[in-house]
Amino acid sequence: MAAAKRGGTLTIASEAEFSGFNHTRARIFNQNTSGPALAVMETLFAYEGKEIVPRLATDFTEAPDHLSATVKLREGVKFHDGTPFNADAVVFHYERLMAKDSGVNTSMLSPVKAVEKVDEYTVRFSLKEPWPALQSALALEALTNFIGSPTALKQDPDGFHRQPVGTGPFVFKSWQAG
After folding, report:
1. Which SS3 state, helix, strand or coil, does residue 157 take?
2. What predicted TM-score, i.e. pTM, was given to this entire model?
């Protein structure tokens, strides 16, 4: 297999314009929006066919009581702004989404009680009740699972909506409507 070629431009066309990348401002997420998000941001896990595979995570371990799961994160990953992808970024991401005033429909995450940093590259999802579908939920290509740079989101949440910063294979350069 040939090595991937670096550089170039990725142009994405869509039948309908999507509302943006900031999870707390985007109102619709469907096939028209997952392509651009996947190009710039990544998820902890993903589906390849029917199998769940790691992306930004390396391991998923469910506790014997099924009330928590530990997720090990890939080391050495950086967001496009140069800041590290680590447990702090994952905790920030999910706490932000699960906040009551986030404006995000988080019914998909309603069984999650808390997301905690265990160490620099490990997080624990604590659950309200046993939920065997947690890893599946984390693998869905839903806007709530695409992890963006906490630094970029804190510095300019409005700007992030149209200029996302992620860890994906492409760095976002511009958005041209129409």
Report:
1. helix
2. 0.86
